[in-house]
Design goal:
Elements (H helix, E strand, L loop, with lengths): L1 E4 L7 H17 L2 E4 L6 H10 L1 E4 L1 H5 L5 E4 L6 H10 L2 E4 L3 H20 L2 E5 L5 H7 L7 E3 L14 E5 L5 H18 L5 E3 L5 H4 L1 H11 L2 E5 L5 H13 L3 E4 L15 E6 L5 H16 L1
Parallel strand pairs: 1-12, 2-3, 2-4, 4-5, 6-7, 6-8, 8-9, 10-11, 10-12
Helix pairs in contact: 5-6, 9-10
Bound molecules: iron/sulfur cluster.
Length: 291
């Protein structure tokens, strides 16, 4: 049986970078606090926790003083930096440079909308860490939309400046932008609409690649944490191309009966899936089919 690991799957540049930062601190200091889950992958979290990574929530963070805290790739709202200043917390800023640039863009866009009585709209999930960081750039005023049904929150008689969370689906963003344009043209007297292309290239390029990869194999094992939004999105893409695709979070979930009449297995994952985990999955597939 042929087993192939997708070479384009696995950590994106931002996640790889922040994990390397955490590992460097852990090597020197044996312990580091991280604000929120550093990566949406339980297995990788367990590995880092065994090295000394301690995940803290916002309530804990607010009450901490005189310590060092790592900020993950998703970025943070200004409030997090203000607390650090007040409580003498040394921040190690692991914000992905792409997210950092996007935060600055959103801030500039917000300043512009204030002058023209417009609205900043973010296509993303309200509670997603990156979106919280982005909304924070707008004094909490941005309107967050996760699908077409939520568009009624927008006042189409006012100008709109639109951004997307970096990990959203390109086609869905295209559809949403089109619908906003239609509504502005029909009900908003053609007010200004600025559409910013802010989906991360690292994510956008994975979708067409994973489509092709999924088509090539009899069975696709998509490896990801269950709480990864990028994982959910890419798995959907696999499923569309190859109905014989399975979502797994660990090699222990694999069952031998999945391989009946299977000649080729493709293993792929999200931007938060560690490469070592995909290799473990490949080993498990191999061992099950040798028996
Ligand atoms: S998906 Fe893109 S923007 Fe988000 S952390 Fe990874 S590299 Fe950065």
């Amino acid at each position: 049986m042929k087993i192939e690991i997708d070479q384009q799957s696995g950590f994106c540049f931002g996640v790889e970078k922040v994990i390397k930062t955490a590992e460097d601190i852990l090597k020197k200091e044996g312990k580091v606090y991280c604000l929120g889950e550093i990566v949406h992958n339980q297995r990788e979290m367990e590995r880092l926790m065994s090295l000394g990574l301690i995940t803290i929530d916002y309530e804990t963070y607010r009450n901490m003083k005189n310590c060092k805290v790592l900020i993950r790739a998703h970025g943070e709202p200004p409030e997090t930096y203000e607390i650090a200043e007040k409580n003498n917390i040394q921040l190690v800023d692991g914000t992905c440079p792409i997210v950092d640039r996007l935060q600055k863009k959103v801030r500039t866009g917000y300043e512009k909308t204030k002058k023209i009585d417009g609205q900043v709209v973010i296509f993303g999930k309200e509670k997603h860490a990156e979106v919280i960081g982005l909304k924070g750039q707008t004094e909490g005023k941005a309107i967050v939309i996760s699908n077409l049904q939520e568009l009624d929150q927008i006042d189409f008689s006012k100008p709109v400046v639109l951004y997307s969370q970096t990990t959203r689906n390109m086609n869905e963003y295209g559809e949403l932008s089109k619908e906003i344009r239609n509504r502005i043209n029909t009900t908003g007297n053609g007010k200004e609409l600025i559409i910013n292309k802010t989906i991360c290239e690292q994510v956008a390029s994975r979708e067409p690649n994973i489509r092709e990869f999924a088509r090539k194999h009899d069975l696709v094992l998509f490896v990801s944490g269950k709480n990864s939004s990028n994982g959910k999105m890419l798995y959907q893409v696999c499923k569309e191309e190859n109905p014989n695709s399975r979502f797994i979070s660990a090699e222990s979930e694999i069952t031998k009966r999945w391989f009946y009449k299977t000649k080729s297995v493709g293993i792929c994952g999200a931007t938060s899936t560690p490469e070592w985990l995909m290799r473990n999955v490949a080993e498990k597939v191999k061992s099950l089919n040798e028996k």
